[in-house]
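Hey,
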Amino acid sequence: MASDFSSDLVVLAPDAATPLLVVDELPESSQAAVRALLDQGESPNTVRSYRSGLRYWAAWFSVRYGRRLAMPLPVTVVLQFIVDHAERLDDAARLVHGLPPAVDAALVAAGHKSALGPPALATLVHRVSVLSKLHQLQGLLNPCDDGRVRELMARMRRGYARRGAQQVNAKPALTREPLEALLATCDDSLTGLRDRALLLFAFASGGRRRSEVTAATLDNTRPQAGGWVYQMGVSKSNQAGRARADSHKPIVGRAAEALQAWLDAWARAATAAGQPAPSGAIFRRIGKSGLPGAALSAQSVRLIVQARASLAGLDPSFSAHSLRSGFVTEAALHNIPMAETMALTGHRSPASVLGYFRQGEVLNMRGAALLDVSEDVPLDGDRPKGRTGK
């Protein structure tokens, strides 16, 4: 078949100054370009996470084996890493792990661990995933794909689950009541107006992630009749920034009013100081001069949520993601259809959002109140009223 197209195989004379004579190996400049393309196509949070994981691997390996980390790693090293960091029951039914105390102390002293003892299961799983990804990206034989490692990881997870340990330590959800407490701490200063607008924008537009909040600008967020519309670009579920039907997120009601109040206050402050009118990123730092300055970072969004939670006297473990989980949970409490909720949040898989829905609906499940249902009211009718027994 190939011979049918032989006349189409045109050969051009190569540039004598820059011929590539080796076809099975990339030159260093091209390798650097590949690395740059990979890095620039990854989210900053993921890059930071991978770098942190690799630093830990390098530190553990240097203390455990007395030499510099070099890849590819043998399977035995990965097995040792898991054994060192995973908890298991000993013969006396006590939880133990294999990391020698001296190694553990050295890692803490060097700042690679925050405390002595084994990490959370999620941390261990993530670090093994980081190692696997790095081998994959470098085209190396991946020890994490070895059957022994895969089987050990699977059984380790089951062991944790049987002891009641959960891999994911979800942040508490900022549902309406705690969110109102945070909003009550926001005064009419520039900082208060900004924080109120940010909290309501993130929640009401579908539980926006930190990176999505900081990506909001006056170019992609436009006023329309009845509110504003935020047109999202790149996000966790849309890494390529493709135009999608659910890319437009509504900001209406109180959220729209708060956003307008913040922008109006910013405009007044800018005019009084002889500065340009608001443009670019919507949510800004408030500088020492009392004027809006540089755009907020994703980390700043988390700190704002935590600071407002502290002022409200609420759980200090609330985070920026609590706005997202709170929106989904609140939507379930108000019986908003899951499809509509997913259109707002941008979730692509029902499995990702189902857990929040179940959490929000659990006390409204009619099947849980079978003994309180009046015998003359069918289950598929209106929600029955409980009856008292004698």
